[in-house]
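Incident log, structure service

09:12 report received: a user says their structure output differs between two submissions of the same chain.
09:20 pulled the input from the user's history:
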Amino acid sequence: MQKLHLGIDRSTYQIEFKKICEIAENMGFDGIELQPEHPEIFKIYPNKAVSFINDILSNYRFNISFHTPIKDLNISAYNKKIRQFSINQIKESIEFARNIGAKYVVTHGGKNSFKTASSFSRKYGKIALNSTIDALISFYDICSDNGITLSIENMSYSDWRMTSKIKYLERIFQEIPDLKLTLDIDHAILRSKTYVGKIIEVFNNKLLSSHIGLVKNYTSYIEKLIKLTNFKFFVLEPHSLTHLINPNIINLIEINKNELKKIIK
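09:34 re-ran on a clean worker, output below:
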């Protein structure tokens, strides 16, 4: 049976990390997916955050997945210094993931810095995709050396997000055959419901995990995912349950966790 992780994202940033772990255990989650940008963690990240996290996690038997940093980074940036800084930040975060015992790391692709319909934007789009591939190869090598499984997350459909289109993903997997995919259903469905199904169909042998929000909206996709041999776990993302810091976020997490458990039991 697939595992269920609680995502630690922006809708849980107002909750102490220790409390989030307590909530996850009390609700029956198998693990957590940690983002280091949680304010309590990020202010001491990376070095002091390792012992802080490990001291808390030592009280639990969680499976740990890790989401690399997101804010202000672009591994395909036109500005070479920003691009290299972003790549270095992701590499550093993978080492951090290893030090907190994460077995899975998910990361975003880069973005075309030019979001217009100009000929230069189209030209740089090809360069941006190549930059994403080069960076992902380096991330994959670090993960492989440390016994970590790396996946990329599909982003909201657009020309300028380098992991948003099927043709982009196909090119990436052609270059990195053992790389895995984390399906973010909320991202894919912005294109269409059919598009979600298409991603599952095309990349069924690549799918490792899925980010999910309101479970009742996605039952048919969940049922397809749990039939896949290599699919390992779902991550319930609180920010996909509400776009606000909602005082009932804990209730929303529990309601959707229970609905998901019924389907994957």
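09:41 both user submissions now match this output. Likely a transient worker issue. Closing.
09:42 reviewer note: The longest helix spans residues 119-145. Strands lie at 3-8, 31-34, 63-67, 104-107, 149-153, 180-184, 207-212, 233-236.
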